[in-house]
Write a structure and sequence with these properties.
The structure holds two protein chains of two kinds. By secondary structure, chain A is mainly beta. In chain A, strands 2, 4, 5, 6, 9, 10 and 11 form a seven-stranded mixed sheet that branches. In chain A, strands 1-3-8-7 form a four-stranded antiparallel sheet, with no helix packed on it. In chain A, strand 7 and strand 8 form a beta hairpin. The radius of gyration of chain A is 13 Å and the shape is globular. Chain B is an all-beta fold. Chain B is 0% helix and 51% strand. In chain B, the strands form three sheets. In chain B, strands 2, 5, 6, 10, 11 and 12 form a six-stranded mixed sheet that branches. In chain B, strands 3-9-8-7 form a four-stranded antiparallel sheet, with no helix packed on it. A two-stranded antiparallel sheet of chain B has the order 1-4. Chain B is globular. The chains are: A mainly beta, B mainly beta.
Chain lengths: 115, 114
């Protein structure tokens, strides 16, 4: 069964810490995405990547960065965590030209709490 | 730019009753449309998708959806709801192209009463 795996289900971090959220997919997908999910706001795109070392900003990139050194791994980095970054973070992947017709495969999510 | 509206934030139905969740989209061409379901604390799972052909599509778990171009809608239906269907449901629209992105609605939370 194909999978998108997020390394942590729950994380608690302190304000100002540098936080790494890891996502790995085993489907050889070109596209990978990071979303955050908040009640009443749905899913908001933070960053996405369509190739190794390539990245593009989504709708809410401020306070985040990403890294994609290998095709299967896409990392989200909170440079200096703040309480307003407390949220559920979802990683997803899709084939290069298939996102429009095949949709995404999602990971199980990481619930991050910044205290 | 594409957009998706799910007008119902929260819906409650009795077990065994029928269900319809509404989704309206805005997109200049024929869209690719999706419904996802999210159980509490989980990621999103694809229920069904439409990208061409028959406008009535069948999905997993007994769900179906109908694409109506004239109404810009893609409503999700189920004839008889089970308690295990309680979850949050997201409609999404996509398009072709490199690194094409899906745009999601804000979701509808379904509660099922016994």
């Amino acid at each position: 069964d194909v999978k998108v795996t997020q390394s942590s289900r729950y994380l608690v971090k302190r304000t100002g810490e540098k936080v790494f959220l890891e996502c790995v997919q085993d489907m050889d997908h070109e596209n990978m995405f990071w979303y955050r999910q908040d009640p009443g706001l749905g899913l908001r795109l933070i960053y996405f990547s369509y190739d190794v070392k390539m990245k593009e900003k989504g709708d809410i990139p401020e306070g985040y960065s990403v890294s994609r050194e290998k095709k299967e791994r896409f990392s989200l980095i909170l440079e200096s965590a703040s309480t307003n970054q407390t949220s559920m973070y979802l990683c997803a992947s899709s084939a290069l030209t298939g996102a429009g017709s095949q949709g995404y495969t999602f990971g199980s999510g990481t619930r991050l709490t910044v205290v | 730019a594409q957009s998706v509206t799910q007008p119902d934030i929260h819906i409650t139905v009795s077990e065994g009753a029928s269900l319809e969740l509404r989704c309206n989209y805005s997109y200049g061409a024929t869209p690719y449309l999706f419904w996802y379901v999210q159980s509490p604390g989980q990621g999103l799972q694809l229920l069904l998708k439409y990208f061409s052909g028959d406008t009535l599509v069948q999905g997993i778990k007994g769900f179906e959806a109908e694409f109506k171009r004239s109404q810009s809608s893609f409503n999700l239906r189920k004839p008889s709801v089970h308690w295990s269907d309680a979850a949050e449901y997201f409609c999404a629209v996509g398009r072709t192209g490199t690194a094409s992105k899906l745009t999601f609605g804000t979701g509808t939370r379904l509660q099922v009463t016994l």
